Amino acid sequence: xxxxxxxxxxxxxxxxxxxxxxxxxxxxLSSGRAKMAKKLAEEAVEVVIDALDGQTDAVxxxxxxxxxxxxxxxxxxxxxxxDVWAEMRRREDMFGIAEKxxxxxxxxxxxxxxxKVIALESRRIRKRR
Length: 129
What we know:
By secondary structure, the chain is mainly α. It has helices spanning about 1-15, 25-30, 35-50, 55-75, 80-95, 120-129. The protein has a single domain (about 1-100), classed as MazG-like (Helix Hairpins). About 65% of the residues lie in helices and about 0% in strands.
């Protein structure tokens, strides 16, 4: 799988900065971070819906779309797949392959500033009620 992701990453990097009218990937990259993030979220939701509906073939197709959009966002953000694989190995060494970081270990690394969390408008409205 990592070979496929590496090839996809190289293909996305290759079209970065090319004519957006000739490449869907170039168009997505030029659309901005918010649009790329929205596309990634949409694909994730589609995977979830198809999984809940028990549609295995659709889960496979939508998962491929999800990975594509994730790689596009990585390219835009300057994240290389090797960085992600290194983090996966680090977590595996600490907690085992199937484990997610425990809540107490999830905080940012000491050299990283804390991220500001901005509430969605709909969440603020619900809290006021």
